[in-house]
Structures are given as structure tokens and as C-alpha cells.
Amino acid sequence: MGSRILDRYVAADFLLTFVVAMVFVTFASSIGAVFKLADLIARGMPWQPIVTIFVAHLPTSIVLAIPLGGLVSCLLIFGRLSDDGEIMAMQTLGLNMTIIIRSTLLLVCGLVAISLYVNHEIEPLAHLARRTEQAKLRSVSPLDMIEEGRPSRDIPGLTIYIGHRKGDLISDVRIYDARDPSLVRAIHARRGRVYETGASSGLAMKLMEVRVDPFSRDLPRPVFLDEWSLDIAQLGQPGEYIPDHEDLPSRALWRSLQQLDKDYPELDARDLALQRSFLLFEISRRSAMAFSSLALVLIGIPLGIRSHRKSTGVGIALSLVIFLVFYLMTLMAQSLVQVPAAHPELIIWIPVILFMALGITLIRKKG
To answer: Of 143, 142, 137, which is closest to residue 43 (Cα–Cα)?
Structure first.
């Protein structure tokens, strides 16, 4: 009975600190959006859509706040317990680390379940609501709708794939033009530039080192050109946002994954593999970020006990360093999304598994 009271005391202390830490982290991650929205209000924009944008931004902040808040709480709580000698006292009474932390781990498992729901269901819908309101305020440029590594079918009859993009410069461009059903053309370009035309929702491309197949009805064979200009007209109407895969719940992503060949019959095997890689990675990323809470808590508990420092600032600084390392490892996996053979949907789990294994090993040593 005494062991249950002790570990529940630790869990209650963890939960209280977690709530405070999460509120702080959520506010800190939203501060940039607050300043941007304040600027829009100062420029005379209506406040209702601006409030909607801010509220819709909160789930995105929570996705990062839950694992970081859990890590900060572990470093602070278990660091304090270690400094005050309470961990040693519990172990002297015959309690091992598993008993001391079990209620805390149960709380964290609950956080993982909440994160899974937020990441897979709520955050995509919030992202859609946010971008829709931004488009109504005309704060979303048509250029923002052209993303690298993702086929775009926003314009009827056109499928546009851009391998790499930096600003308005693009490379590895593949366009499947079926606007005229009697002349379906495949346009490949090594590089080029995409830019807005006079209308705020109009786009055009200037491509370099281009292959057009077939070139025309009179010349039904591939033609190689140094330059090729393509007007892709309107990309949606002003005030309209065209949903992307990031706006879809994971159930919809799974359905799209299962019928990829039917949805994109014009794509070749390479482009289909890239699209499949993106969908798999997006689903895996959402799950991996949810389980990152458990991984970071497992590493935070032994490091908190090991620190032996009473400074709250040191605990927060250490948590930021650990989270930065973890986040950089996930970014490395994301950079491989255009290399399907590397299986980035599996690589994204490496930091989660690595931190879990390291945390469990350190906890056992403490026990």
C-alpha cells in the first residue's frame, strides 16, 4: 500500500508540472502566430477569421508541446526528488525504479493515446481550417500550393510534379498535360522558375532543358527544347484554398494509398513510388510523434535523477537540447521522403526506438 501511495504521489507531481510545462510550451510555440495575427488586425483585417486561425493553430502547437512538456516535467520532478534524497529513500525502503515510476508511465501512455488522436484526426482538420481562413484573407500565395515531392492536380487536366523547389526556382519538373484529351503530353524539365501572373491566383512556368512528348499533332514525337513557357492559368479562385494531403485524416490517407493507381493513372512508376512514399511517411510521422512522448519521458527520468542539480533553468535547457537532437533526427528521416528505397516511413521510428531503448537501459541501471 505504501508503494502505491508513493508512486501516485510522484505521478500527481508529474501531472501538475506537465500541465504547467505544456501551457508554457504551447504559448511559446504560438507566439510567432500571435504577432502575425496582431499585425493583420492592425492592418484592418476582420478579427473573426483571425481568431479562427489562432485557434486552429493550437493543435499543431500541441503536437510538439505534449512530448516536450513530458520531457521537461520528468527532468524537473525526478531531478528534485533526487536532489532531496527521496529517490534514495524509496529505494532504501525496497522500492525499485519500476515501482517508483509505474504510475507516471501509465499517465504517459494516456498522453500517447491522446496524441495519436490529435495527430491523426484533429491536427489535419485544424490545418485545413487554418489554411482556408488564410486564403480568405489572401495571405496564402498560389506559390505556396506548389510543393516539392507531391503531385498536384489542382488544375483540371494537369498533373504537376516538382522534385525540388527553393523559392520560385524549381527542378526535376514533370507535367502530365491532358487538358486536350486528343493530345496528352508528358513534359519533363531539368529546371525552371514558377511565378505569379497578373491575377493573384494565376501561375506560369518558365522551364529549361525541356522534353515534350509528343510535341504536337503535326509532330507526334518527342522534341527537346532549351526553353519552354507554360501558362497554368488559375490555381483556384481568390479566397479559395485547395486541400492537400496534410489536410486529410489518416483514414483518408490510407484510402488514397490503397487506390493510388486509380487516383493517378497518368503517373509513371517512379512518380507513383514517390507519392506512396510521401503518404506512408505522413502516416508514420503522425504515429511516431505521438510515441515520442513515451520515448522522451523514458530518457528524461534517468537523466533527471542523474543531473543532481536544483536549478530549474538547467532542467529546461537540458530538455531543449534533448528535444532538439530528437527533432533533428526526425528531420533527417523527412529529408529522405523522396528516396522511397530508403524507407523513410521506417527511419522516422529510429529516434523513437533509440530513445526508448536508451531510457529503459538507464532506468534499469538506476534500479
So the answer is: 137
In the chain the beta strands, taken as DSSP E runs, fall at 158-166, 169-177, 185-196, 202-213, 223-234
> From the CB of residue 235, how many other CB atoms can be counted at a distance below 10 Å?
23
Grade residue 92 by pLDDT with cuts at 50, 70 and 90: confident
- The pTM (predicted TM-score) of the whole model is 0.70
282-302: b (≥16 Cβ within 10 Å) or e? bbbbbbbbbbbbbbbbbbbbb
Environment class of 66 (CB within 10 Å of its CB; exposed 0-12, middle 13-18, buried 19+): buried
What is the rounded average pLDDT of the residues 33-50? 67
Taking a C-beta distance cutoff of 8 angstroms, is the pair 268, 284 a contact? no
Query: In this structure, what DSSP letter does residue 118 have?
Result: I
Match 489542382 to its residue by C-alpha cell: 154
Please name the helix (run of DSSP H) or strand (run of DSSP E) that holds residue 261, with its range, or none.
helix 260-263
Confidence tier at 7 by pLDDT (50, 70, 90): low
Residue 1 has pLDDT above 50, yes or no: no
Per 3-state DSSP, the chain is made up of helix, strand and coil in percentages (nearest 5) of 65, 15, 20
Q: Are the CB atoms for 204 and 229 separated by under 8 Å?
A: yes
